[in-house]
Design a protein that fits this description.
The chain is mostly helical. It contains 15 helices and no strands. It starts with about 25 loop residues before the first helix and ends in a 12-residue tail after the last helix. InterPro entries: Efflux_drug-R_Bcr/CmlA, MFS, MFS_dom, MFS_trans_sf.
């Protein structure tokens, strides 16, 4: 990676006498920001192997109810994002992130003490409220320092590291379970949070220049919200990103049932199957990080989206041909291919949504993150709760939401797909 490390981003407001960058080098910068996002992923995926144990512990009769452990976390995660952006634009990135991590740690401890399933769900909401800080501020910190294709490339590298986590998270969860209790799964979350706090505090300086800070007021927040909503590119690509997030959340919510208890009964091999699919996403984001500089965000993401919809339709056809129970190798292959293709769209959609909003990067990231997460959680919930012992709900969800995304992107681009530009 040879990209220059800039301060500030080209599209940001001009800065007088900007100080030289005193923080970590490029690779360490990417690693720290990726770890901020990884807290979110591990908090979802390493709990999946514990579902059967939690079901037995709390006497849950409907296996689909266990999916709420994923979706209530995402609700808290989505709701809190609307707060962290304006706070970080006014107070800076560092203090807001540290407060959010304190909330996350509190949620972990409450989950470990849960005497009931309802208590555990409430603790998961609190975890989500805390983890949202990492999601918002990781994007804002990248936007503080990069723009255009450089931002898309950096986000792809961060997403690649971020997506490695789902490959190993269920295995970590299984290992924690082998120690004797599902409570140990939350210990692994606490360890990750502690590493992030220490590393970020020691190495990452404040990235928001004082001249870019915005007043913390309802009027300023309202103005930023109006600017975001009125921008066709921002709201269009945020909607597309939210719908694609719904595909991912629908799969994640039902993955344990599909691969283990409800369909393929893989048992201890469940983390291996889950990791193989996540590995396809990680590989795609690495390819995207390199290709986006040469091809541009729009041509690459639009081509990936069309291919994603095509494979989604094939996924439905295969499911119907095998009455909802295709051979495991075939199902894994098609699913991994679709996860590979979706990864050419999501990082670029995220970058394009934020691209015109550099002057309000933190607030815009917060608002768009809130919108995409809540939309994704809702769509994912509909897919996950439709699980009927077959692969068809996942396939129909991918194909249906993918087609809707294509319509949204066409509207956003006034019907002109694949068009590039200086920064797109």
């Amino acid at each position: 990676m040879t990209a220059p490390f800039r301060h500030p981003a080209p599209e940001a407001a001009p800065v007088r006498d900007a100080p030289p960058w005193s923080g970590p080098g490029f690779a360490e910068f990417v690693a720290i920001v990726a770890l901020m996002m990884a807290v979110t992923a591990i908090s979802i995926d390493n709990l999946l192997p514990a579902f059967p144990v939690i079901q037995a512990r709390f006497g849950i009769t409907d296996p689909n109810s266990l999916q709420l452990l994923v979706y209530v976390y995402m609700i808290g995660f989505g709701l809190a994002q609307i707060v962290y952006g304006p706070l970080s634009d006014a107070l800076g990135r560092r203090p807001v992130l540290l407060v959010s991590l304190a909330i996350y740690v509190a949620g972990c401890f409450l989950a470990m003490l849960a005497p009931s399933f309802g208590w555990l769900l409430a603790a998961r909401v609190i975890q989500g409220l805390g983890a949202a800080g990492g999601r918002v501020l990781s994007t804002a910190i990248v936007r503080d320092r990069f723009a255009g294709r450089e931002m898309a490339s950096v986000m792809s590298l961060i997403m690649m590291v971020f997506l490695i986590v789902p490959m190993i998270a269920p295995a970590i969860g299984g290992m924690m379970l082998s120690l004797g209790s599902w409570h140990y799964v939350f210990v692994s979350m606490l360890v990750l949070a502690a590493i992030l706090v220490a590393w970020f505090t020691a190495r990452m300086p404040e990235t928001l220049h004082p001249e870019h800070r915005r007043p913390l007021s309802l009027r300023a927040t309202g103005d930023a919200l109006a600017t975001t909503i009125r921008n066709r590119t921002a709201i269009g690509y945020a909607t597309a990103l939210g719908l694609l997030t719904g595909c991912i959340m629908g799969y994640v919510g039902s993955a344990q049932q599909v691969f283990d208890t409800g369909l393929y009964h893989l048992g201890n091999l469940f983390p291996l199957a889950f990791g193989a699919v996540a590995g396809a996403m990680g590989a795609a984001t690495l390819v995207n990080a390199r290709a986006v500089r040469r091809l541009g965000m729009r041509p690459l993401s639009h081509a990936g989206l069309i291919a994603f919809v095509t494979v989604g339709l094939a996924q439905v056809g295969i499911g119907l041909a095998y009455h909802g129970h295709p051979p495991l190798a075939l199902f894994l292959g098609v699913l991994a291919l679709n996860q590979f293709l979706i990864s050419f769209a999501m990082p670029n959609f995220n970058a394009m949504a934020l691209q015109p909003l550099g002057a309000i990067a933190g607030t815009a990231s917060s608002m768009l993150g809130f919108y995409t997460t809540i939309l994704g959680a809702f769509c994912g919930f509909l897919i996950g709760q439709s699980f009927d012992g077959t692969t068809l709900p996942v396939g129909v969800g991918y194909a249906g939401l993918g087609a809707l995304v294509l319509v949204v992107v066409a509207w956003t681009e006034h019907g002109r797909l694949f068009r590039g530009g200086v920064s797109g």
